[in-house]
Amino acid sequence: MEERQDGNIIKRDIDEEMRTAYIDYAMSVIVSRALPDVRDGLKPVHRRILYAMHEDGITSDKPYRKCANTVGSVLGRYHPHGDASVYDAMVRMAQDFSMRYMLIDGHGNFGSIDGDGAAAMRYTEARMSKIAEQMLVDIEKNTVDFMPNYDDRLQEPTVLPTKIPTLLINGSSGIAVGMATNIPPHNLTEVINGIIKIIDDDNVTDEQLMQIIKGPDFPTEGLILGREGIKEAYTTGRGKIIMRAEAEIEEMSGNKQRIIVSSLPYQVNKARLIENIAHLCKEKRIEGISELRDESDRNDRVRIVIELKRDANANIVLNQLYKNTQMQDTFGVIMLALVNNEPKILTLRQCLDCYIDHRKDVILRRTQFDLDKALARAHILEGLRIAIDNIDEVIAIIRSSYDDAKERLMKRFGLTDIQAQAILDMRLKTLSGLQREKIEEEYKQLMELIAHLRAILSSEKLVFDIIKEEQAKLGFRREAIRLYYPLSSLNHFFETEYSEEEMLNKLQELPDFIKETLGDIKVTSKKERFCFHIPEEGSSYVHDNTKPNEFIKELVELVGQHGCKIEDIIALFKEHNKDIVVEEINNGEFDYLIRFPKENEDPYYYCFHDEGCHIIYHRFLPEDYEDFGF
Questions:
Q1: Residue 108 pLDDT
Q2: With CB atoms counted within 10 Å of each terminal CB, which end of the chain scores lower, N or C?
Q3: Which of 7-16, 230-239, 527-536 is predicted with the least confidence, judged by mean pLDDT?
């Protein structure tokens, strides 16, 4: 029964009341809590965290701010729930073992792969990562809809205008009412190449996309066994992907062997895994292990050493570990997301189509906003031009008016209210010849801009070209690193002596899209170094064809780690020589240049640029600094 304000009681059937109330609750959980939006790949809590940090100016180039400050801002403005839910979401966005591309740059203890919890929010600090900033670009240009917050006091975005396809590159997991989602993370460049492929060929199928997007790209690395699970997930929206830890068998003295585990399946707790292996050994379910220890550290995020008895067969023990522990695990893919506020299971192609439609809508709304702004400014300039052409009469009208100058100007010259007000606000210096030329030049540029913006609004092809151009800028750097300075195989490039012809053949392995972006690539051989000139980017990449020393191997290993920061690199240099020279160059390409004080110790220059989700690294001799435009 329901008691109304007038005191009357309404009788209701309890079955109907329970059904209605539960459906309302279920839809609230589905739409407002547990499932991500297909357009920006975020749940409401993540979206509110990023938008609150954007409003507060806690960007990647600003100092870290206490997490308690951000949590309080999110709770007070947008998220009427407990502080634990906000802080937990914030912590996960800062974990390099949870997110393929971290959206939060954390400072302090944000947990570990061993299952350790983060420090309390009063101790930790955070700011937005560089890649997260790309999710909020142009939000002030009416690119997305806003809705009232929980107390109708403020407005919050219903979705972010993200430039990056977050749903696929970071994945998502959540349990709603009667449904759940579990989307794996992917490589940014592969997803971008898939988007470009769809724009170029609207008839591309999921199977053809799988030639570009090979499969998930888990932040904890590891191996994926077979392609059937990936194919099923991409073509139906559901599938099972078998993940396996990377392990090597090494020989030891005394005719013994050991197993080295260097990576784990996604979302596997390392400490719990080691505990489980020890328990299985104790119960004799796995035999042949003499010692088990965790040697993980800053350089080796995962290094589990399993020493075997002399008579043990390493391959048999390894297979038993795969069978009985989480060294082999399954990722159940359920590609469920909100499409127009309705939960829907999507294929790979449908996910990308929804993102492209979102970017198309954002670009059209942004263009319309810029057009309206340009038209408004042009309207004012037209009034100022009239005033300057008739300046003596305008001054006479203003001087002879008491409080009706605006009305008289409007009547005399046919001006609008806005134009007349702009003339009244005009400073005397505007009358100078230089200022008059500036107004004419600005008006001319505005007319060209207006024509360009109108062309975009009337041409779907131009809109798609803009999408491709924006995506290319996001994906190019990653592809460049993978070829020239690959985080995972840099040693391979340093340790192999390529001839100029072999290096040219290597370049032909680039995807067609990247080759189109680079234009005419030229290879120049100089003192055992190759320089790749990239005309459209206006930069060059130098590859050193000499053998690496131990320091270079350490540097490559550090740069290749997830979450590596410039501070870690500087610390590594100082371990070798505390008097190293560190220069902040900020030339648009790099942030830091590091060199050793004496050339005979190491003659090379090292330049680094922090892209937020990875470090760009270049090594070259001083003469190349000018020769190749660095």
A1: 94
A2: N
A3: 527-536
Kindly report the number of other CB atoms within 10 A of residue 441's CB atom.
10
Dihedral angle over CA of 39, 43, 45, 51, nearest 10? -10
Instruction: For residue 34, give the DSSP letter.
Output: I
Q: Give the C-alpha separation, 629 to 537, whole Å.
A: 12
- What band does 31 get if pLDDT is binned at 50, 70 and 90? confident
Distances (CA, A) of 30 to 2, 336, 344, 564, 595: 27, 11, 11, 36, 54
What are the pLDDT digits (tens) for 136-157?
999 999 999 999 999 999 999 9
For the cut 90, the answer to whether the pLDDT of residue 389 exceeds it is no
* List 25, 123, 443, 604, catalytic entry: 123
pLDDT of residue 335: 95
Cα angle for residues 440, 443, 444 (degrees, 5° grid): 85
Higher pLDDT, 197 or 4: 197
Half-sphere exposure of 514 (CA within 13 A, CB side): 21
Range of lowest pLDDT (247-256, 503-512, 550-559): 503-512
**Would you say 127 and 58 are in contact if contact means Cβ atoms under 8 Å apart?**
yes
Gap between the Cα atoms of 456 and 464, Å rounded: 10
Degrees to nearest 5, angle at CA 554 with 548 and 558: 130
Task: Give, for 605, the enclosing helix (H) or strand (E).
Answer: strand 605-610
Structure tokens at 398: 């203003």
Contacts of 486 (CB under 8 A, 6+ apart): 492, 493
- Whose structure tokens read 């974990």? 95
pLDDT mean over 559-579: 74
Task: Show contacts of 138-145: CB within 8 Å, 24+ apart.
Answer: 138/362, 138/366, 139/51, 139/54, 141/365, 141/366, 141/369, 141/370, 142/365, 142/366, 142/368, 142/369, 143/362, 143/365, 143/366, 143/369, 144/362, 144/365
434: pLDDT confidence band, cut at 50, 70 and 90?
low
Crossing angle (nearest 10°) for helices 460-483 and 188-200? 150
* Phi, psi at 299, each rounded to 5°: -80, -40
CB 101 within 8 A of CB 169: yes
User: Residue 537: which residues within 8 A CB-CB, separation 6 or more?
Assistant: 476, 517, 518
Q: Read off the tokens for 375.
A: 């038209």
Angle at 332 between CA 326 and CA 336, to 5 degrees: 150
* pLDDT tens-digit map of 83-139: 999 999 999 999 999 999 999 999 999 999 999 999 999 999 999 999 999 999 999
pLDDT band at 524 (very low <50, low <70, confident <90, very high): very low
123 included as an active-site residue: yes
What the block records as the tokens of 95 is 């974990």
Predicted confidence at residue 496, as pLDDT, reads 44
Cα–Cα distances in Å, from 148 out to 42, 50, 78, 154? 18, 17, 9, 6
> Nearest Cα to 327, choosing from 337, 317, 312?
317
* Cβ neighbours for 400, distance < 8 A, ≥ 6 positions apart: none
Distance of CA 476 to the CA centre of its chain: 13
pLDDT higher than threshold 90 for residue 576 = no
Structure tokens, 282: 């104790």
Q: Which 8-state DSSP code applies to residue 288?
A: -
Return the axis-axis angle of helices 83-92 and 67-77, rounded to nearest 10°.
130
**φ and ψ at residue 107, rounded to 5 degrees:** -130, 110
* Beta strands in 386-480, from DSSP E residues, in sequence order: none
